[in-house]
Amino acid sequence: MTLQIYNFMTRRKEEFRPVHEGFVGIYVCGPTVYGHSHIGHAKVYVSFDIMARYFRYLGYQVRYVQNITDVGHLTDDADEGEDKILRRARQERVEPMEVVQTYMRSFFEDMDALNVVRPDISPRATCHIPEQIELVEALLETGHAYEADGSVYFDVASWPEYGKLSGRKIEEQEEGARITINPDKKNPADFAVWKAAEKGHILRWPSPWGPGYPGWHLECSVMATKYLGQPFDIHGGGLENVFPHNESEIAQIEAATDERFCNYWVLNNMVTVDGVKMGKSLGNFVTIKEALSRHDPMTIRFFVLSSHYRSPTDFSEEALDAAGRGLERLYGSVQLLRERLRDADGEEVDPAWAQKFEEYRQEFVKVMDDDFGTPQAIALLFDLGREVNTLLNSGQPVSRATLEAIDGLYRELGGTVLGIIPDELVQQADSELVGGLVRMLIELRQQAREARDWEESDRIRDQLAQMGVMLEDGPQGTRWRLSH
RNA sequence: GGCGACGUAGCCAAGUGGAAAGGCAGCGGUCUGCAAAACCGCCAUCACGGGUUCAAAUCCCGUCGUCGCCUCCA
Question: Which of A89, A193, A215, A219 lies in disulfide reach of A125, CB 3.0 to 4.6 Å?
């Protein structure tokens, strides 16, 4: 079995074949940095983080490119309205590049919290203006674009394949659709590849057609091919961008170069809030920072991965709470395992477990190979957890080597690939002072218990519980853990 | 109006032709001084109606419902 990926272009799962053996190039549409990132961003970038991690796990050398859009997207329409970054700059009375810098930092902060590995290249649109102008020139030369009043438009009618990704035909985009009539355009579906800057538009660059700024699809076509070549392997992004953004990306570069843009289109489904799409324009979006104020970052990541990337995810506080409790269960096994590891010995791995490790690994690869089946992969970790709990609570001696091997499996599958099991769980990383104090209280409670003073022992337990320290009595003595 | 996705237990969510994963919640049990944690057990005729098939949650047709795209949005 080899890796199968659902290719949105063909609407089928296909075996993954890289352009260059052993290498994989991934481009994912990045954020426009004019506000804090929301849960929808979390789903996309966690999803593609998993893909990058899994490719690396399989031994590929990955180049993951994710742009930063710091210019050019308008508030209303492709051609009307105000640049969102400019508007924010005006509102906050700062330079546009201060807006960009602020929210770019915010974005990476959030991604770091969610344990998303940073992209290998985070190219910015404003750093690639000359390349974008070159592509516009190429489109004019090949007759796929025309100039009008300082702006340059892509001529949709000149390229019959327009619509092949989204399954749309230009003729069908008729009444009901809100297409603004722009007298400069030959066809209402034509879109700007270069836009003349009106007076007062701060973000502007000189060009053969006068001062202006790039069209809003151009940067992705240009930066993806600049860093990954053409064709490259995987283009990713959110499903809501399939039209017109992704469609236009393809049109520009393929019309200009007469060569395929990329081989696999991988688009993730959206996040809804109580069943309704979360959107900046709807004002119902939940920022990652808000979610982080109420939930552990790993809970959010776990929540995202517990549904498939191509399924819509409905965000609710209840669902997040339930995910958090599920994750706690997973951590319980790992915690117990690592505690037991502290004073275990024995050099031999239990052969029955050696067998299990192979089975879990194989099954994990099997479900991940099927279009990145993270929900099934997580289910496997729960199965493993049950077996581990049974083993560790059985009272049987378990060799150090076996415990280490189990821990290694958690680190490999849950840590390296899924990124939901940290190398150090919170309690382990906690201060020696706290640990010492808690152990002292456990000792005092133990004395009360031995004196059958249940009132006192329960008082200690209850008060610690109120502070978030949970005590658990077992045959091996009393353990403690922090509840989140 | 056009295009597309989805509808699986109280909730979240896999499974896309051959005995319905997993998690949360709930119930019963084991363990415990009592708890907690853990373990064992229980808990779904897969929106509805037809059809194809030896066999359908899975394929086809229809109905109802939810959502998305067609305007910036991850």
Answer: A219
